[in-house]
Amino acid sequence: METPMTEWNNDRLDEMNGRMKEGFAEVDKRFTEVNKRFEKVEEKMATKEEMAEVRSELRQLNARFDRFLSILVAACFGMVGSVFVAALGVFLQS
């Protein structure tokens, strides 16, 4: 463990100054790396216009699924009705 300094001489101050510069250079390097990461993320993010376009397309797709579901339900009711009428006809003939 270093002993506490009671006096600061020029050499010691120069050494501390050098370590401070190295430390700040390392921090600057890390900030540069973080900024590069943010730039990459910003490139991948969608703009408001793109999001509005996606929402519009999803609404259209939702409307298509609603129409498909309506047709499917109508077809199922038709099939069940046909089976019911056929079963009723068989039951009444016997």
Give me the strand/helix succession. HH
Envelope shape = rod-shaped
For the termini, the CA-CA separation is 107 Å
Q: Report the biggest beta sheet as strand number plus sense, adding barrel if it closes.
A: none
Q: Averaged pLDDT, please? A: 88
- Computed over alpha carbons, the radius of gyration is 38 Å
Number of helices: 2
* Overall number of strands: 0
Report low-confidence residues grouped into runs of 5 or more. none
Oligomer: single chain
Instruction: Return the structural class.
Output: mainly alpha
Task: Work out the helicity level.
Answer: over 70%
Residue fraction in strands: under 5%
List the helices and strands and how they pair.
Layout: H1 10-44, H2 48-93
